[in-house]
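Blinded run. Sample ID left blank on purpose so nobody reads anything into the name before looking at the predicted structure. Input follows.
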Amino acid sequence: MKTLGHRLASSWRRSAAAVVAGALPVLAFPAPSLWWFAYVALVPWVLLARTAPTGGRAARDGWCGGFGFMLAMHHWLLPNLHVFTFVIAALLGALWAPWGWLVRRLLGGAPSRGRVAAALVVVPSGWLAIELVRSWQGLGGPWGVLGASQWEVEAALRLVSVGGVWLASFLIVALNVAVAVLTAVRRTRAPAVAGLVAVAAAASAAWVWSPRPDVHDRVRIALVQPGVVSGPDSADRRFDREERLTRELAGQDVGLIVWGESSVGFDLGDRPDLARRLAALSRGTGAGILVNVDARRSDRPGIYKSSVLIGPDGPTGDRYDKMRLVPFGEYIPARSLLGWATSVGKAAGEDRRQGSGQVVMDAGNGLRIGPLVCFESAFPDMSRHLAEDGAKVLLAQSSTATFQQSWAPGQHASLAALRAAETGRPMVHATLTGVSAVYGPDGGPVGPRLGTGTAAARVYEVPLAHGATPYVRFGDWPLHAALLVLGGWGVTEAVRVRRGARGSLAEPARTAHGSPVRPGH
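Blinded prediction complete.
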């Protein structure tokens, strides 16, 4: 009994250690923004999984680590989803169970140089497979992709222009595996050192040969951030503040004005008075205004979040209805099964409706814009498709009012830098409240950011660029390559196991005196 209790206590301690190890990489993201820590943050987790006594225990280490990573990355949801945050983290954490098993399979015990060399490619590929699966919108989308921690590192942004955020994730995991091997398996240093050299070579090659954005012009774009407006009649009072701030832009030669997510809380068909006021603002400033309407539509059933372009005569007809909704925040997946989430937190009481396709809008003077709403800026494929369709500027309208004092606003704003670098198109991140920021076509910052406590209208000189990045041309090739690597390794392992089984069956039996008994005798 005492031995059983000791084993249980040891198992719980190991699980707790895995949770902590899995949470460590989050320190590389905003708000801590210790981007350099990403290069070693996975090492404790890898070392723990490789020393698991069994494959099942390694899988549990992976699951517990994934739970820690998801919980730490989304801890700011706790005030809204309460206990359901832990449920979501546990479900998504299960994606890392096969990864933990994979680490032990390749690095457990005293691995040969061949196994270490394989681990430097297969383990990062396994991580990318996890990021691919959880990038599905129904599972929460690609928030917290490991490569996104490098949003302010110029060399990493060059890599991103070649293979998207996925290439950065792959190389970061490979770097962590190499460091773990150098730490714990010193007799097989050669492949680990080769891995470090390969990562450095890839970063250097991207720095030297990746094409730079060809900047050819600039456009003046203004962001209007009203700040927190709450309480009774907040939608009307917010509109009044946005209107006042926008009037300050008159005479500043602005080409486009962008309001944040849910900046208009009424359908403009139901409120023609608001449409007239917006048209007057467009005439007064000489610029189109991109607003975001969050309301029940007058021309069809349901609530939509829509980017609507306003001109001097009112709505121009250019409209984008948000396609990828925030799980639990804007709809509840399988509401009949998970609807109880509304009783334990601030989950969506009614599902928003989805749009049917992305839209590139003509904002005048040849300026073509591609709007995204809220966490759609986390999806690399959406911004890439907008760039393919001719958008010259990417725009994300968001609001993090619920999470003002958390890490969420900084995390959200940082995504725009990655989307800009991936596509070679500048990106404007305009918030109702939160962090508003603008990034050039290389992913570098343009002008100062507007912080969570700011209510202001600010004009930015946004550089425009020609051409297409390798990522826009070739798409998510690191993900495809990772799946091929995993498939090839799986086939190789199956063949090796089958050969081993045949070899054991072919071994001759022995008599009691130790002499072999050959088949046929």
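Unblinding after everyone has recorded impressions. The longest helix spans residues 154-184.
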